[in-house]
Amino acid sequence: MVPITLTVNGVKHALEVEPRWLLADVLRDELHLTGTHLGCEQGVCGACTVLLDGRPARSCLTLAVTASGCEITTVEGLAKDGVLHPVQEAFWQEHALQCGFCTPGFLMTAAHFLENNPNPTRSAIREALSGNLCRCTGYQHIVNAVERAATIIREGDSHAISQD
Questions:
Q1: How many whole angstroms separate alpha carbon 155 and alpha carbon 92?
Q2: Which domain holds residue 109?
Q3: Strands 71-73, 55-58: parallel, antiparallel or unpaired by DSSP?
Q4: Domain of 151: which CATH number?
Q5: Partners of 15 in the β-ladder
Q6: C or N terminus of the chain, fewer CB within 10 Å?
Q7: What is the mean pLDDT of residues 62-87?
C-alpha cells in the first residue's frame, strides 16, 4: 500500500492505495463518490471524466497514485451551496439525458469547455463533446444543453435551481 493525498471537491483525503488502483475505483469504492461512472474502462466513452487540476481526465485510465497531491472535481462537486451548476441546470432544462449513465462525463467535459470558451459555436460544442459517448439521447439535446449553459453563464442567470 502507498500513502496518497487527494483533494476531492475541496475536501482533503489521506488514503492508502495499491499502486495499481485506478482513480475511478478509489473515488467510487474508497470515497463513495459514485457519480463517476465506469463505462468502457478503456478511456473511450468518457463516462468516468473528472477534472484533475482543472483539466478533464479519464479516471478509468489514471492511476490513483499519479493523482496524489492533485485537486480533483467530480460531478458531485459541480453544485455549490445547494445550487446546480449552470451545466447541470441546462441539462435538466433541455432534457439532455435519458438513462443518465454518460451524464457525469458530459457534465464535467462541458463545464471545463465552457470555462475556456464562454461563447461557443454549435460546431465547437460538438467537437468538445466528441470524446464522450451516449447510447440513448442522440446528442441534439446535449448540444442544446451546452449552448443553454453558455448563455446562463454569460448572462449570469440567477434562475439557478436549488437542490433543497
A1: 18
A2: 86-155
A3: unpaired
A4: 1.10.150.120
A5: 4
A6: C
A7: 97
